[in-house]
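queue> pop job 88
queue> type: inverse folding (structure -> sequence)
queue> payload:
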């Protein structure tokens, strides 16, 4: 006798009421498994979908805004390297003694010592928009006073 025939014989030996109880228990276990494996995760996903959609919509709006800014920057006419150097020199002089400019070909390196974060951010924006210089490399360290030290290398072309 194999296992399935033993199981079938045992099933048939059970009283009708016992078989109903076992079927009910099996259905209850099956329903619980379906709930835990299929329905509950789907409901959690459905509940979080609205907030995730809002988050993704905000990210999409930000990406569209960045895309528009990039297209506007690309549409701007190029300025001559000499003009870019002059504008960059004037922007670095606004920092006073905290910044020094070194130009080699079409690359400019600006060294900062104790520059404030706000001033540095405004300067980078000004350089990007007015001089149309692209930061190629930045090595900045935040000092104990909260100001920044380091270098920013810009591509003038």
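queue> result:
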């Amino acid at each position: 006798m194999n296992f399935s025939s033993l199981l079938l014989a045992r099933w048939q030996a059970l009283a009708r009421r016992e078989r109903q109880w076992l079927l009910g228990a099996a259905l209850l276990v099956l329903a619980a498994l379906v709930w835990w494996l299929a329905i509950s995760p789907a409901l959690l996903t459905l509940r979080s979908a609205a907030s995730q959609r809002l988050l993704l919509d905000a990210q999409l709006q930000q990406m569209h805004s960045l895309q528009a800014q990039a297209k506007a920057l690309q549409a701007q006419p190029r300025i001559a390297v000499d003009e870019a150097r002059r504008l960059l020199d004037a922007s670095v002089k606004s920092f006073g003694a905290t910044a020094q400019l070194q130009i080699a070909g079409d690359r400019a390196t600006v060294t900062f010592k104790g520059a404030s974060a706000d001033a540095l951010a405004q300067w980078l924006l000004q350089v990007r928009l007015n001089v149309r210089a692209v930061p190629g490399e930045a090595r900045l360290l935040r000092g104990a006073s909260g100001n920044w030290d380091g270098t920013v290398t810009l591509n003038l072309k």
